[in-house]
Automatic annotation (TrEMBL):
GO biological process, alphabetically ordered: aerobic electron transport chain
Domain of life according to the entry: Bacteria
FAD/NAD(P)-binding domain sequence ranges: 3-351
Protein family membership: Belongs to the NADH dehydrogenase family.
GO molecular function: NAD(P)H dehydrogenase (quinone) activity
The name this protein goes by in its record: FAD/NAD(P)-binding domain-containing protein
Organism for this UniProt entry: Candidatus Yanofskybacteria bacterium RIFCSPLOWO2_01_FULL_49_17
Signal sequence, start to end: none
Cofactor names: FAD
Keyword hit for Transcription regulation: no
Gene3D superfamilies: 3.50.50.100
Record-linked InterPro entries: FAD/NAD-bd_sf, FAD/NAD-binding_dom, NADH-Q_oxidoreductase
């Protein structure tokens, strides 16, 4: 039996596991290893940070956590996939073994007998041997060497990051209402990519709603978005950027382009121009880097940017039984000669190709090459407003763009969950996150 180990449960890793589960049987076993027990739906992380009921309690935070944390037990229920919840200590691609950190990992499968049959003596309490390995480890925040980013700025990659920012926002408004602080509240958001603009727009909508409900002046808050480049979202068309800039301005978000950050403190951002901007909270959305675990993997060569070079089939160069996908890879688009961006839908496509190629490789058939497509994107810009670029010059804005975004989320939920559960999750999120609209 061929053993496939998938490292990481992001969009590409989950898709690869689900597709491979269809092939699992006497010839193939599939194991997904992740430090968490859930799949994080990152496209709505900004909603968690900006959700704002007047009454904050533990139950509310639990609701927020459940809104974008989808348990693997639900995703893989009835599927031929075993989940191992563990921190990875090391990966040896030469000897084909993954070792876990700490004590015994948490394992789940359809039946103990299936696990025993699948692994036998190759599985021990601190590691797993494999025949095929998929590197889907994702990315983590990068501070680009700027002092103070990790120490003082709110990061924005995990559910804990989103909840921490939400808690800070609630505390700031309560302090003004109860006379413990003077207005205005000022959020400083560094990085005007898609994550930065989505967060800035929704925080502005949330602040406006909170100010109104608490009886505060509309000047009780301000938001500033910093971007090092001359324009926000340099990858989008001018007409679409103009729509987004206009929308952000209407929401009260000040955009500071050509703003290179020199250092960060808990309540300020210092620019290389010498200007210092004071604020109540600093949020970092400016950049990510591939998982640092890659640097410690025995037998893996990386590009100067710390990414994994892959062949057109997504197999790692020089390692035909190792595949990589998502944020960890450097895949040069033959049409543009530029790296394919790390987006959710590109990771999903890579997960499908990887699963197919592993299955066909086991059977000795010809592998399929990955053909990248990323000429579509959706940018929510506060409340029920979004800009949806659907490719080939087609763009929907405002409510219709927001509707397309909602349908895209529902479609994804339906692709990984049973229909009833997918609809329930979509409805719950819609009710929870529509309070700012």
């Amino acid at each position: 039996m061929q053993k496939v180990v998938i490292l990481g449960g992001g969009f590409g890793g989950v898709r690869c596991a689900l597709d491979l589960s269809r092939y699992a049987g006497d010839e193939l076993s599939v194991t997904l290893i992740d430090r968490n027990s859930y799949h994080l739906f990152t496209p709505t992380l900004y909603e968690v940070a900006s959700a704002a009921p007047i009454k904050e309690d533990d139950m509310f935070h639990l609701q927020l956590r459940r809104s974008i944390s989808i348990p693997y037990s639900k995703i893989f229920a009835g599927k031929n996939v075993q989940l191992v919840q563990a921190e990875i200590a090391s990966v040896d691609l030469v000897n084909k073994r993954v070792t876990f950190a700490g004590g015994d990992p948490v394992r789940s499968s359809l039946a103990e007998v299936r696990r025993t049959r699948a692994f036998g003596a190759s599985e021990t309490s601190n590691g797993i041997d494999f025949d095929y390995c998929v590197l889907a480890l994702g990315s983590q925040s990068s501070d680009f060497g700027i002092p103070g980013v990790y120490e003082y700025a709110y990061q924005f990659k995990t559910i804990s990051d989103g909840l921490a920012l939400n808690k800070k926002m609630q505390e700031l408004f309560r302090d003004i209402k109860e006379g413990r602080a003077a207005s205005p509240i000022s959020f400083l958001i560094i990085g005007a990519g898609f994550t930065g603009i989505e967060l800035a727009a929704e925080l502005a909508s949330c602040a406006r709603m909170l100010s109104k409900k608490l009886g505060l002046d509309k000047r009780a808050y301000s938001l500033t978005l910093f971007e090092a480049a001359p324009n926000i979202l340099p990858m989008v068309q001018d007409k679409e950027r103009d729509i987004i800039v206009k929308r952000l301005t209407e929401l009260g978000v000040a955009i500071m382009s050509n703003s290179f950050i020199e250092s960060v403190t808990s309540d300020s951002v210092k620019l290389k121009s010498g200007q210092t901007v004071k604020g109540s909270a600093v949020v970092w959305t400016a950049g990510v880097q591939p998982s640092v675990l890659l640097k410690s993997i025995h037998g893996l060569e990386l590009t100067p940017k710390g990414k994994v070079p892959v062949r057109p089939t997504l197999a790692v160069s020089g390692l035909p039984s190792v595949y990589a996908l998502g944020d960890v890879i450097e895949f040069i688009d033959p049409k543009t000669q530029k790296p394919v961006p790390g987006l959710a839908h590109t990771a999903l496509a890579q997960g499908r190709v990887t699963a197919r190629n592993i299955a066909t490789s086991i059977k000795g058939r010809q592998l399929k090459e990955y053909v990248p497509y990323y000429d579509s994107w959706i940018a929510p810009v506060g409340a029920k407003f979004a800009v949806a670029h659907l490719g080939q010059g087609s763009t929907l804005t405002g409510f219709w763009g927001w509707l397309v975004r909602g349908l895209a989320d529902l479609r994804y939920f339906m692709s990984i969950l049973p229909l009833k559960q997918a609809l329930a999750l979509f409805r719950r999120d819609l009710m929870l996150f529509s309070k700012n609209d």
